[in-house]
């Protein structure tokens, strides 16, 4: 049993077992392994470096990443615990992840990690990969477009308190140079397009590749206005739009042609308003001489718009231009008839002469003797001609007395003791003048209007003026009573005057 052959076989078997044990123990150390490789490229569309990392596993069991470190940024899809697939079909397992590095500050990208296998818990040493950045990574700029090839879109609106607009460069467009755009408002003579127009307010902005949208805002006048949104800057603003002068034309945004058609949106212009920018006023004043003073004024919102007034009355016509804050007076001759005053954006004003309340009235003097009755009518200066209708008995006579003139009317003396005088065109009561008493049996004597009971002959030619005649008679009566009282006192008392 313990033959030399048996002992030799035993030693050989032990040696074989020892060698086999060594092989099993050492073979995993040479087979469990992971690798890492990185490749960088430049994305010229964004100016960003894209680093692609490939992690490999040469063992037929999944490996788990641990102790991960990356520079200069994190790696998308790679963190502690990430699995590197097992080797399969004779091909190493692979995990592909990417890292983005923006700018040229970083000179390399690195990734380091350990791997641990799921089947036996084996963990290898730290693996590290790095990629050097030697060339710059620059974004490719899109070719710029000239102003005539750029495209935009806009908004535009007008309210009572102002106008606003927003103009935006379309996406994907790169401008070779900035594009100015302006919003401007005007005074206008009418709510429809008309001239002349005068600038009221403006706002200008410039669209660039960095500032791709601008907001504009202007005030509008509280009267007729025009508002325009156009491609152009402050130097392109038209301060005064006149007949035959410059226009914005198809530079206005939203136009069907020209540079304004480059922007899509509503029409970039407005005409409107609820009232004129000038305010005409008319004040007619009747004068005592029959003329009418027509006072004309202009109280507009702008001094740019004068007002043309037209004054008509019968064959009389006069046109007057009145600027803001000024006034003009047109005198319509007496007897011209109904007056019409007209002006743009104003309802016609109609007026007829009416007697002013403070005009001086004609005066009347009545004289008589045994044969005639004479009525003298005197018309003051500065008044219109007065027509007097004088009645004595059954006889009626009319006379027209010019201003500052005197006219006399005579009648044959009859039995009537008074004469009446009317002024049909004046707002006064008729005058009833009593004839003075005359002793025709003793040769007669002149008598004055008014009469009385005194034994003395009447004083000739006392004037009687309109409705004031009654007041004169009342005062005379009072004086007569006062004289009687003093006469009675004198009869009862002796009065001595001392020099």
UniProtKB/TrEMBL annotation:
Keyword Transmembrane helix: yes
Ribonucleoprotein listed as a keyword: no
Gly residues: bias regions: 442-452
Keywords: Membrane, Signal, Transmembrane, Transmembrane helix
Position of the signal peptide: 1-31
Region annotation (Disordered) ranges: 248-274, 439-465
Transmembrane stretches, start-end: 468-490
Name of this protein: LPXTG-motif cell wall-anchored protein
Originating organism: Actinoplanes auranticolor
């Amino acid at each position: 049993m313990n033959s030399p052959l048996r002992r030799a076989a035993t030693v050989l078997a032990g040696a074989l077992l020892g060698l086999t044990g060594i092989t099993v123990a050492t073979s995993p150390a040479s087979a469990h392994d992971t690798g890492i490789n990185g490749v960088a490229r430049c994305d010229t569309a964004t100016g960003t470096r894209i680093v692609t990392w490939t992690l490999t596993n040469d063992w037929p069991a999944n490996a788990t990443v641990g102790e991960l470190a990356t520079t200069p940024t994190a790696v998308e899809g790679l963190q502690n615990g990430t699995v590197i697939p097992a080797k399969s079909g004779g091909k190493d397992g692979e995990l592909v992840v990417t890292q983005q590095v923006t700018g040229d500050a970083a000179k390399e990208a690195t990734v380091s990690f350990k791997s641990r296998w799921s089947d036996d818990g084996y963990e290898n040493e730290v693996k590290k990969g790095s990629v050097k950045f030697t060339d710059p990574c620059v974004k490719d700029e899109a070719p710029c477009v000239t102003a005539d090839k750029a495209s935009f879109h806009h908004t535009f609106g007008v309210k009572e308190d102002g106008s606003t607009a927003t103009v935006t460069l379309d996406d994907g467009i790169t401008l070779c140079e900035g594009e100015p755009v302006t919003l401007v408002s005007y005074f206008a003579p009418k709510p429809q397009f008309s001239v002349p127009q005068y600038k009221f307010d403006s706002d200008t902005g410039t669209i660039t590749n960095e500032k791709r949208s601008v907001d504009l805002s202007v005030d509008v006048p509280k009267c007729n206005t025009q508002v325009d949104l156009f491609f152009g800057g402050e130097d392109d603003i038209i301060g005064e739009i006149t007949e035959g002068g410059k226009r914005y034309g198809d530079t206005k945004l939203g136009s069907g042609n020209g540079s304004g058609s480059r922007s899509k949106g509503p029409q970039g212009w407005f005409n409107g308003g609820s009232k004129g920018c000038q305010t005409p006023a008319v004040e007619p004043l009747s004068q005592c001489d029959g003329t009418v003073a027509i006072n004309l004024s202009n109280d507009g919102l702008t001094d740019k718009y004068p007002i043309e007034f037209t004054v008509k009355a019968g064959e009389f016509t006069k046109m007057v231009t009145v600027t803001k804050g000024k006034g003009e007076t047109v005198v319509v001759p007496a007897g011209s008839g109904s007056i019409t005053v007209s002006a743009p954006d104003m309802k016609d004003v109609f007026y007829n002469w009416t007697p002013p309340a403070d005009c001086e009235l004609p005066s009347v003097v009545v004289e008589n003797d045994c044969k005639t009755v004479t009525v003298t009518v005197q018309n003051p200066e500065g008044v219109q001609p007065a027509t007097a209708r004088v009645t004595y008995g059954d006889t009626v006579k009319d006379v027209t007395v010019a201003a500052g003139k005197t006219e006399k009317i005579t009648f044959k003396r009859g039995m009537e003791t008074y004469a009446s005088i009317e002024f049909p065109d004046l707002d006064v009561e008729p005058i009833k003048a009593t004839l003075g008493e005359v002793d025709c049996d003793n040769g007669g004597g002149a008598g004055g209007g008014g009469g009385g009971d005194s034994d003395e002959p009447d004083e000739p030619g006392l004037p009687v003026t309109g409705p004031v005649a009654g007041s004169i008679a009342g005062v005379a009566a009072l004086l007569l009573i006062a004289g009687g009282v003093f006469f009675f006192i004198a009869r009862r008392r002796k009065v001595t005057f001392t020099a």
